[in-house]
C-alpha cells in the first residue's frame, strides 16, 4: 500500500508539473470523462487499494457501485467477443473501444477518486513509455496528433516513475504476492476482496 501511495504521489507531482508547463492546453477537470471510457487492466496492489476503499463507503453507495460493476463485466466481455478476443493479461480491444467505468458517477466525477489506479492519475498529460520509446501518448482533447510537445524533462522523469513501479511489481512477486490468473478491472476490484493478495 505504501509503495502504491508513493507511486501515486509521484504521478500526481508529474501531472502538476505538466499543468504548470502546458497550462491551458490541459483541460482535465471533473465532468470531463474522456478517460473514464477507456478499457484497461490494473494490478493486484491497485485492486487491493480500490477494494479496501469500497469497503469504507456507506452501504447504499457501495451497493450502487456493485450494481454498476456487475452490469459492466458482461458488457466488457461482449466488447471483447465482438473483436474476436478473449481477455488476457496485456490483451485489450483496439484503441478507441469505449465503455463507461463503473466508478464514473452521474455527476461526471470518479466515486473512488482518492483510490483510483495509476493510469487514471496520469491520463491527460503527455506520456512516455520506455517500452515504446518512439511515441508519446496524450489525450486528444489536450494534444492533437503531430502537436509539438517541448519538455526536456519528460523522458527522464517518466522513465524513473515507470522503473519505480516496475520495481514495486518485482518486489511484490519476490515477496510471494498472489497473482490473479484473470486480468483485473476496476469492476472486479469493486466486487471482489483483493486484500488477501497483499498478505
- The string of secondary-structure elements, in order, is HHHHEEHH
CA-CA gap between termini: 11 Å
Tell me what portion of residues adopts beta-strand conformation: under 5%
Structural class: mainly alpha
Structure annotation, total helices: 6
Shape: globular
Largest sheet: 2 strands, antiparallel
Strand order of the largest sheet: 1-2
Overall mean confidence score, pLDDT:
93
Overview of this structure, please?
This protein has helices at about 1-20, 45-55, 60-80, 120, 155-175, 185-190, and strands at about 125-130, 135. It is about 45% helix and about 0% strand. Helix 1 runs antiparallel to helix 5. The model has no long low-confidence stretch (mean pLDDT about 95). Strands 1-2 form a two-stranded antiparallel ribbon. By secondary structure, it is an all-alpha fold. It has 6 helices and 2 strands. The longest helix has 24 residues, at about 60-80.
